[in-house]
Design brief:
This protein is α+β, with helices and mostly antiparallel strands and about 140 residues long. Helix content is about 35%, strand content about 35%. The chain is built from 3 helices and 8 strands, in the order αβαβββββββα. Strands 1, 2, 3, 4, 5, 6, 7 and 8 form an 8-stranded antiparallel beta sheet that branches. β4 and β5 form a beta hairpin. Keywords: Carbohydrate metabolism, Glucose metabolism, Isomerase, Magnesium, Metal-binding. It comes from Parageobacillus thermantarcticus.
Length: about 140
């Protein structure tokens, strides 16, 4: 069974996902969480961890933007305060405020050619995004 799973990974890639949360309590925390999303909307990063951003999905306005052309596509899902960035290497990250806690949540997904590469890619993506977030909120 395990060998079969390894064959699948070798054929399709080693996918890795992770979640990071940033707790920001109180009224100031709620403002900081709003500021994080506002900053990513106002000045979206052109690259993350040295990898070009190719598309941005903003579920609040139901739009997917292809960065290179500016082409906009409609997202046919319920509106929500969520942003998702797609990178040229197939990686992605997503950010949103928690609906129940004083937290901003960050989701990451990558595909590597080995387990080690996928772990390195997700760590680099996490670190790059969180560095931007910490600049926004000065923590």
């Amino acid at each position: 069974m395990y060998e079969g799973l390894l064959e699948i990974f070798e054929k399709y890639g080693y996918y890795r996902e992770s979640l990071r949360s940033l707790t920001l309590k109180g009224k100031d925390g709620a403002e900081q969480i709003a500021n994080i999303l506002a900053a990513f909307r106002k000045e979206p990063p052109k690259e993350i961890a040295g990898v070009e951003v190719v598309a941005i999905e903003d579920y609040l306005i139901s739009k997917r933007t292809i960065v290179a052309t500016g082409e906009e596509q409609t997202i046919d899902l319920p509106r929500s305060n969520v942003l998702k960035y797609h990178l040229a290497n197939g990686s992605w990250f997503c950010l949103r405020p928690s609906g129940t806690e004083p937290k901003a949540k960050f989701y990451f997904g990558v595909r590597g050619t080995s387990l080690q590469e996928s772990e390195e890619l997700v760590a680099a993506l996490e670190n790059a995004v969180m560095a931007i977030v910490h600049q926004i909120v000065n923590v």
